[in-house]
Amino acid sequence: MTSLVELRVLEGPNLYFPRAAIKLTLDISGLADVPTDKARRFAARIGLRNARPGEPGSGFRQRFAARAVSRLVRSVAHESGTSRLAVRVRTTSDPHQLVVAYPWRHRERAQEMGRAVAEVLDELPGAEVDEVVGRAAQRVADSPDGSGPTTITPKIPVVAVTGTNGKTTTSRMIAHIARTWGKHVGWSNTDGIYIDGVQVEAGDYSGPSGAGRVLAHPGIELAVTETARGGILLKGIGLTRNDVSVVTNVSADHLGLQGIDTLDQLAEVKAVVPHITRKSGWAVLNADDPRVFAMRQVIRARPWVFSRDPDSPAVREILNHGGRATSVIDGWVSVLTPHSDALPVVELVDVPMTLAGLSRFNVENTLAATSAALAIGIPVEAVVEGLRTFRPDAEHNPGRMNFFSVNNPAGTFSVVMDLAHNEAGLEAMFEIMNGVRRPGARILLGLGAVGDRQDELLERLGEIAGMGADVVAIGHKQKYLRGRDQQEMDGLFRAGLERVGMTDVASYDTEVESLAALVEQARSGDVVGLMCHAERQEAYDWIAARGGTADDPATLAAKVRAARGD
User: Fold this and answer.
1) Fewest CB within a 10 Å sphere: which of 62, 229, 293, 364?
2) In this predicted model, what pLDDT tens digit does every residue of 137-172 receive, in sequence order?
3) 236/233 Cα distance (integer angstroms)
């Protein structure tokens, strides 16, 4: 069977439907190349009486193929005993492939229908159209039903967080605030499953299994789920709905994978999370990101936006339509509601994650977490206490903007560790590093990324690194090369670095080796940054073994003041 490129069972809400679906990736070369008269007979057999299929290989034929495949799925379903079936068809970057999706209730029968549709496309060039379609329908009719979807309907409140950057920090903040309130909280993310702040299972649980494992734990009163692009595309969301959703932002990351090639397509994927937020709940959206703000058009829930600008048109629109907003007024995180005065919640200087407001991204994460916590019903006093006690360290937010003070014979300097896995993340990292860099001191960066990124993105990371740092060392992520080799990664990074005039760049096999090389060169007041993904704990241990200490909020504030010359 050559037409069936992939058959994927999506267990819950997904890009195509708000419920479990089958996703077929089909090679339509046969349909695209059959003679026009046979294409017309095929169209008539499946009920497209006035079709204009166009010439083989033409753009008109490709559009006809998309319409015909959709009708073929409905015809096979109808003739096998299914009276009504919704079908979605999407083109891909490959003109010879289409994605077809339809909901399912019975696993075996639904998969058999996908295989039967592909069989029709396989036999189409040389077969009698009536016979092959009828045989496919009978094959589906004879198939056993199989089991139903495993999608869970939650019995406790759920906060679902998605976005390109900031979703891990935001979900950690929400979970911490809820624990401060005294609730038993389960949380799933890319690191594992956490129950009341303790990791009980390690691994990437940002897909549907994470939500299920959290909800399976007895005694949990609130679930916080980090929902990543990959989980939505490959398996669907594991829950039928959530009570509060958060979308932090949409920026370039993981493009070119699973048929998602543009930012607009990526935004469509992220929008699945607010789309399944219950009508009586709240969808928390970033009003400063146009693609996220546009998601208000697909939600049933009430809109709650966050923005660094309290006078933005987006905030005004939401308030005019009865929604809510969280913003910054006179240095205070404040909540805006229609026809009432702003509610000051907490000063930014009292929120350690924001570095006294220095970190633009963490200001946004704070606004998002505040909105979600209040939306789920946590009292203001508990929200304030949670924000004041959540710190940018390895205990509360491992791998995200972790600050250390380290010594070598040349003096004391700072080390900053962050995932910084894309352009926006690296730019945010430089923003922070410059915010604690003393006048006249340098920025030294350990540059690295996982291998499943587009060539353009890896080169762009090199450009950003070369423009923002005085010294760059490449540190490879052996476990995350994902089909590339070190030489290829080096070449892409160096291409970007050389475009901005940086050519003297050393390369190391591991993240820790690049950190060690940079620390050896650091001088008093410098800031060393490490884009850390593969060896987070090893980097922590390396710093500790050399007497480095994690910065507490007071130390961070002092560094910010010194950088400003206060």
Assistant:
1) 62
2) 999 999 999 999 988 999 999 999 999 888 888 999
3) 6
- Please give the span between the terminal C-alpha atoms of the chain, in angstroms, as a whole number: 71
Helix 553-564 and helix 423-436: axis angle, to 10°? 80
What amino acid is encoded at 344 in this protein? P
Instruction: At 396, list the tokens.
Output: 């509360």
pLDDT tens, residue by residue, 469-525 = 999 999 988 777 777 888 898 899 999 999 999 998 999 999 999 999 999 999 998
| Three-state secondary structure readout of 93-144 | CCCCEEEEEEECCCHHHHHHHHHHHHHHHHHCCCCCHHHHHHHHHHHHHCCC
Cα 75 from Cα 328, distance rounded (Å): 56
DSSP 3-state assignment of 205? coil
DSSP state of 49: T
DSSP 257: B
Backbone angles phi, psi at 508, to 5 degrees: -130, 155
Give one DSSP letter per residue of 417-480, joined into a string.
EE---SHHHHHHHHHHHHHHPPTT--EEEEE---SSS-HHHHHHHHHHHHHH-SEEEEE--GGG
Query: How far is the C-alpha of 486 from the C-alpha of 507, rounded, in Å?
Result: 9
Q: Angle at Cα 149 formed by Cα 144 and Cα 150, nearest 5°?
A: 135
The answer to whether 164 and 249 are in contact (CB under 8 A) is: yes
Q: 357: which 2 tokens?
A: 């407001």
Tokens for 323?
A: 């929604």
Extract the tokens encoding 463: 């450009």
Phi, psi values for residue 228, rounded to 5°: -95, 160
66: which 2 tokens?
Answer: 């998309």
With left for phi above 0 and alpha for psi between -120 and 50, is residue 12 left, alpha or beta? beta
Q: Which neighbouring-strand residues pair with 507?
A: 474
The answer to whether the pTM exceeds 0.85 is no
Q: Which two tokens stand for residue 69?
A: 């495949």
- The pLDDT tens digits for 398-447 are 777 888 999 888 888 999 998 887 888 898 889 889 988 888 899 999 99
DSSP state of 25: E
- 380 conformational bin, left if phi > 0, alpha if psi -120 to 50, beta if neither: alpha
Q: Tokens 């003297």 appear where?
A: 504
- Kindly list the distances between the CA atom of residue 175 and the CA atoms of 160, 206, 220, 384, in Å, as whole numbers in the listed order: 11, 15, 12, 13
Three-state SS string across 259-283, please? Answer: CECCHHHHHHHHCHHHHCEEEEEEE
CA distance 530 to 221: 37
What domains appear along the chain, each with residue ranges and CATH number? 4-141 (no CATH), 158-389 (3.40.1190.10), 402-564 (3.90.190.20)
162, 249 Cβ separation under 8 angstroms = no
One-letter amino acid for residue 438 of the chain? R
DSSP 58-81: SHHHHHHHHHHHHHHHHHHHHHTT
- At residue 42, the 3 state secondary structure works out as helix
Q: Which of 147, 78, 151, 79 is nearest to 109 (CA)?
A: 147
Q: What is the CA radius of gyration of the chain?
A: 26
